[in-house]
Write a structure and sequence with these properties.
By secondary structure, this protein is mainly alpha-helical. The protein has twelve helices and four strands. Helix content is 68%, strand content 4%.
Length: 361
């Protein structure tokens, strides 16, 4: 049984505390003693991307201020920053635009690099929100919902809706001229990058510029996650009614690496000059080595561990270890054939606990 469905409170309490670490170790293949160092190293590129985007916006604002000072009426840097961000985010209210030929050419070149950069950074930040949701969910909740790399639609829709309502209070209080409905409308038109230009709220100082750009950025991230959630339903609609169904599932924060497959036993593959199903292929491999599919399952499940032992230990010690693993696998295969599902589940729990003990040693 997958560990997120277990009911042992002692074991669950342990996993709740380290579930994100287990997921991180699985994805990065790092040692447990170097987790925090690897977390820092892995976070540096993402932080640099955000810093690069901020610098790119500031440099662009200063550049437009120099080559085309008539873009904004006041000529202040904060308004050029607001213009630069809304241009890169493709909001484009239309109230401000380059006025000279040089400004237009620079704008084209600037946006050619800046538009992919801003959406790449926002999408990357959105993935952190998705990962944080699944870590929290698997740590403190129970459920059978499968992790497919996206957040549930109800969560993303609720997040975006709540953010629009927050924008209503934010922009209504900031200007004092908009009704609450118009403020919510302006929030959505801006976050969705529609940018009609019928309602435009300009920041009055540096602080307002900062929180407006932050609000737009977070809103666009929420919209990106909503789009990702909708894509899952569109994919299900696209493959509706097709057989055989092949489903690729990534284990949610599992101790085991790799991918799980469901519905592939009847999928045909080309092997040995003729087509055969995956089930027929596994049976043929078992017959060739005079063993059962159940024994093959145990061998393949521990293949990465066996290779690690073979590469890191002396030859004689490795051979003895592999022989021992083979004897254990044959015994477990026999037991699995003779015992019922409950006994097999207990045997699997024992095998997992022994694996943890060996790794701690």
């Amino acid at each position: 049984m997958p560990f997120w469905k277990r009911s042992n409170p002692d074991i669950d309490e342990e996993f709740n505390a380290i579930v994100w670490k287990e997921h991180f170790i699985e994805d990065h293949g790092c040692e447990r003693t170097r987790v925090w160092r690897e977390v820092f190293v892995s976070a540096v590129p993402h932080l640099l991307l955000n810093v690069l985007l901020i610098l790119y916006i500031f440099i662009g604002a200063r550049l437009f201020q120099i080559i085309d000072p008539d873009i904004v009426k006041s000529g202040e840097l904060r308004e050029n920053i607001f213009f630069t961000f809304t241009t890169l985010a493709t909001i484009g209210y239309g109230a401000e635009a380059p006025t000279t030929a040089l400004g237009k050419w620079v704008c084209v070149a600037y946006c050619t690099l800046g538009i992919p950069l801003i959406f790449m950074v926002l999408a990357n930040n959105g993935q952190f929100i998705v990962d944080a949701y699944w870590i929290f969910r698997n740590s403190y909740r129970r459920g059978t919902e499968e992790w497919n790399g996206e957040m549930p639609l109800r969560i993303t829709a609720s997040m975006l809706t709540l953010w629009m309502l927050v924008g209503g209070f934010l922009f209504r209080g900031g200007t004092g001229e908009l009704s609450y409905f118009d403020a919510v409308y302006y929030s959505f038109i801006s976050v969705s990058t529609i940018g009609y230009g019928d309602i435009v709220v300009y920041p009055r100082d540096g602080l307002e510029t900062g929180y407006m750009l932050l609000y737009f950025s977070v809103g666009m991230i929420f919209l990106t996650t909503l789009t990702g959630s909708l894509s899952n339903y569109l994919q299900k609609l696209h493959y509706f009614g097709r057989v055989p169904s092949v489903k690729l599932i990534r284990p949610r924060f599992s101790h085991f690496s790799g991918l799980q497959f469901s519905g592939v036993s009847d999928v045909e593959v080309w092997f040995g000059g003729r087509p055969m199903t995956v089930k027929e292929l596994i049976t043929a491999v078992g017959d060739h080595f005079e063993t059962s599919p159940e024994l093959l399952h145990y061998v393949l499940n521990d293949l990465d561990q066996i290779l690690e032992v073979a590469l890191n230990k002396d030859t004689e010690e490795a051979v003895e270890h592999l022989k021992m693993q083979g004897e254990i696998a044959r015994k477990q295969s026999f037991v699995c054939l003779e015992l019922g599902p409950d006994s097999v589940r207990k045997l699997g729990s024992y095998h997992l606990s022994m694996g943890r003990y060996r790794s701690s040693k």
